[in-house]
Amino acid sequence: xxxxxxxxxxxxxxxxxxxxxxxxxxxxxxxxxxxxxxxxxxxxxxxxxxxxxxxxxxxxxxxxxxxxxxxxxxxxxxxxxxxxxxxxxxxxxxxxxxxxxxxxxxxxxxxxxxxxxxxxxxxxxxxxxxxxxxxxxxxxxxxxxxxxxxxxxxxxxxxxxxxxxxxxxxxxxxxxxxxxxxxxxxxxxxxxxxxxxxxxxxxxxxxxxxxxxxxxxxxxxxxxxxxxxxxxxx
Length: 234
Ligand SMILES: [Zn+2]
Description:
- Helix content is about 75%, strand content about 5%.
- It is mostly helical.
- The chain folds into two domains: about 10-70 and about 220-230, no CATH class; about 75-215.
- Strand 1 and strand 2 form a beta hairpin.
- Residues about 1-5 have low confidence and may be disordered.
- Zinc ion binds near residues 14, 15 and 17.
């Protein structure tokens, strides 16, 4: 209140017009943030300067509007980060399929198919049928002209050969499966790591946003208090 000299006219720092002291606010009574805004409009805004009500209220309204806009921008920033991370996550999962397809050779594919067939009920039923058929035609139906009589030595040879080939084919398929699992685990690790980083980033962003909002709410409240005080003691 020391700034006010009763009855003397002072110049407004913004519009440059002369006002009596009761229509002016001194530098010391304007809040810090609104003060910064006034500095942008009037470069000479400093200690011992005054601003008229009309300009001060206009700039306060500008300040509140800018605060609200800033909040909106920060929220859309977060949305942008989330959308970006979602699209990048999709890119990672696409890469997994690409790597699988690149690593599969013709031999690998054949081994996979044979191993899948060898481990199916179709194969077991078919195999039992062939065995029963073989034994029947060589023991009952063609008693005089059997091509593989008891104890079915040719059948034994065929079965041993089949087992000898089936074992390495199954091992090949298992090796490939292990390789695939390893790539999958690696990718899972990368995706998890990425998700962890992003969650941390979003959490930091949210913390930052909420603290900023509190700060800005306080600033707006400060401006409102100034307005209230002014209307109580004009
Ligand atoms: Zn003015």
